[in-house]
Amino acid sequence: MKIVIVSPAYPLRGGIANFTAQLYKELIINNHVDVFTFKRQYPEIFFPGKSQFESGEDVDKIPAEIIIDSINPISWKKTAKKIVKINPELLIFAYWLPFFAPCYSSIAKRIKKETNAKILSICHNIIPHEKKPGDKLLTKSFLNKMDFFITLSEEVKKDLEKFVKKPKCKVLPHPVYSRFGEKVSKENALNKLKLNEAKYVLFFGFIRDYKGLDVLIEALAFVKEKIKIRLIVAGEFYDDEKKYTGLIEKLNLQDDIILFSDFISTEEVKYYFSAADVVILPYKSATQSGIVQIAVNFGKPVIAASVGGLGEVIKNNQTGYIVEPENPGQLAGAIIKFYTENKENEFSNNISKIAEQYSWKNFVNGIFDLINS
Fold first, then answer.
1. How far is CA 192 from CA 54, 65, 126, 295, 361, in A?
2. Hey, what domains does the chain have and what are their CATH numbers?
3. Is the peptide bond preceding residue 328 cis, with omega within 30 degrees of 0?
4. pLDDT tens-digit map of 2-45
5. d(Cα 98, Cα 83) in Å, to the nearest integer?
6. CA angle, 159 as apex, 149 and 169 as ends, to 5°?
7. Cβ-contact 46, 70 below 8 angstroms
8. Does pTM top 0.85 for this prediction?
């Protein structure tokens, strides 16, 4: 089958680009696949991080045409023209923010008019975490041009149904992120990160308010009264860093929290997960999270807040714990229980038994099942 993907991709960085890389690698096994990505994803004034581009040398690259400018309609027309020339049987959009709806809608409208392609959206989010005026109008405009939908959780499907009546949709859980390599020994990981031997919990990913790092910092103050652990925070601040460093100082946790506040390159990810005993997702809101599936790849248990679709993947008391959102005391209790009851090996063994169901092969088969139904 001739397939075109429109999405962030290398050299852009971040979760959607990582997702597209692994989707491409699975699709290309039995199909012809072209990828069109952004030469400008966000205007610099709207981008909260330090760089939009990958910096690592060993990143898993995929071939993609770098052509789309998110705010230049001329580039949208050029992209659509090239896709029409390919005449794909299936066009896939990676959707997560209303900001991209005008660009995506413009491309989809021409493809629908000039080809017989089936048009599918993989919806990472429908309703953004940080809402803005006009979001609903833009989202509805884009979604109404799609033929099919994949959502990564039941929660996102419910959001989709607010915009599209009886959508042709399939829920496929986020597949495992295997592109970050295999787990290394804890000793090697700690040496690489220049850390001393200790019990470590991990907060990983871009730091934004909805991800609840402040909740975890407050929980750590409770944990400290019972057991000695350290928190690794690995990710770039997309929020006011002083809000978190001030809280750390207020709670006298300077010696208990290690901040790695630069973007973590693909080849370095394995060291952070291998150094940790458990991964913490203290989110205040969520749909699903690729961080969970990185943890699954490394066999790491997860303690997460009961928001969005996180509980659909994390099995409470089997592969981790689910706690109330924005409840530092309950989060602390789960961390203490994890260590005092020595749950790491039990939970890790359970994770290894379910990892296969989150394969990229199953995900791609689900896409074809949907469009051929």
1. 21, 35, 38, 19, 33
2. 2-171 (3.40.50.2000), 186-357 (3.40.50.2000)
3. no
4. 999 999 998 887 789 989 999 999 999 999 999 999 999 877 65
5. 22
6. 20
7. no
8. no
